[in-house]
Amino acid sequence: TKPAIALDCISKERCAEFSALADQLQYRDAQPVAGTERTPVYQDFELDYEVPREHRFWRIAEALQEVFRPLLEAYHETDGGEVDFELNDLIVQRYPPGCAGISPHRDHIEYRVVILILLLSGDGDFRIHPERDENTGGIVNFQPGQLLMMGAPGLAPGFIRPFHSVRNVSDVRRTIGMRYDCRRHHHLQH
User: Fold this and answer.
1) Which of the residues 20, 34, 98, 107 has the least number of beta carbons within 10 Å of its own beta carbon?
2) How many domains does the chain divide into?
3) What CATH number has the domain bearing residue 60?
């Protein structure tokens, strides 16, 4: 099984519309170095992690949640597990041309089941790595209008969070990241 795949999701017209909405948000620069001293993560992009609940991007998260929740419930019924899935964490990221992107890292362990990233515009290499080494791994074919689905803990027994990175951006890359953060349980309205 692949740790991440991307599928067509929205039209070029919708990408342009959502890109314009994304550009109206209030961005800040990502912290240049995150992680720990032993495992630093280098970041060079802009983000808005405080998108208001009324914003249209939350409607995307709600719609995707309605698609994914029944699938996950059916899947977990077969293995006796329980799923409590809600996309309650949303981040919009903008990678300017020529930026360094983000070095290989794993998403927080509290992000569960599946991580969704909707690519609105731009280019760049989204790479999955078997380890933190930047020179290993393969590029996931991920184009504007596609939804990337990346596994997270709770997807399957023993699932290991994949290392991933973004590099080689030459055209403004805009993404909407949607996650289930089990620390923020019951944050979304039903």
Assistant:
1) 98
2) 1
3) 2.60.120.620
